[in-house]
Amino acid sequence: MERVLPFRFDEEKGVFWLLDQRRLPLEEVWVPVRTAQEMAEAIRTMVVRGAPAIGVAAAFGLVLAHLAGEDLKAADHLLRQSRPTAVNLFHALDRMRPHWGDPVASLREAFALWREVEETEKAISHYGAKVVRGQVLTHCNTGPLATGGYGTALGAIVEGFRQGRVTHVWVDETRPYLQGARLTAFELMKAGVPATLIADNMAGFLMARGKVDAVIVGADRMALNGDFANKIGTYALAVLAHHHGIPFYAALPLSSVDPKLPSGEGIPIEERPPEEVLELRGVRLAPQGFPAYHPAFDLTPHRYLTGIVTEKGVLYPPFDEALRDALGLA
Ligand code: MRU
After folding, report:
1. Which atom of ligand 1 approaches the CA of 252 most closely?
2. I want to staple 154 with a disulfide (CB 3.0 to 4.6 A). Which of 142, 170, 181, 255 is the partner?
3. Can you give the pTM of this predicted structure?
4. Per-residue pLDDT tens for 135-150?
């Protein structure tokens, strides 16, 4: 698959370059990041986004803090405040902590994390390709742009197409941020996979007409019982798929599981500025002064999941046992 990666590190100059995902697909603009403070701001404003990608970006934020001579505790704190839902961010920063004060070890750890993302996603694509078939529907963006690797749900879809199992993809536009329309469409086009864009509210109609054989999405944080947070709109899709008897999968690295949470209730759901609902690329949609609400994620109960695609294989119910096993927990 031709991959467009969301970042690259110029080791010589100590600059981490981010492909500005807010401008895609119309423009490919690279933004230089030189400090942890700039990295936290880039994550908060979604220059870089997607659970595994913000984990890698945060790890390199700590590398930059060393290079720029920033206070490491303050840098870690800033990065932890950047976005609340994807647990990969916190796992990545936990991994960097033992290397505080050692710039070489910190750089080595950040690269190791990035390499692990790639390896993990090769495995997720491999296992995911075996469960998707025919016309597949997906939500948000879970490709290389969201991860820095090969993608999770989208990795499985592209591999499924390569193997002749997937014939066509329905791409939810994913209001209000349009990760589907802007980023998934861009990645599927580059990968040469036949796909069609739909508005989010069209999924039920397509399912009722028998035009969806499987749904596969990513996850930003999964609890130990399989409940998970993913892009707003995922829950509605899960309920629809359940109603129509369509298999519904989440594809994620085990680093997206929060072993501290027995169920999804404790997952913090990010609320983003209402302007992101009220405006489209700076153009006002609703009357001036009209309020809007923007939860960026929702919570899908595990009972709607057919299976969880991980780097260790596809997990089936009971998910609490399967997840504990996969994580090596007692
Ligand atoms: O708000 P975003 O664009 O960071 O949300 C991304 C998602 O919800 C993805 O589905 C999730 O991170 C899984 S990505 C592999």
Report:
1. 15
2. 142
3. 0.97
4. 999 999 999 999 999 9
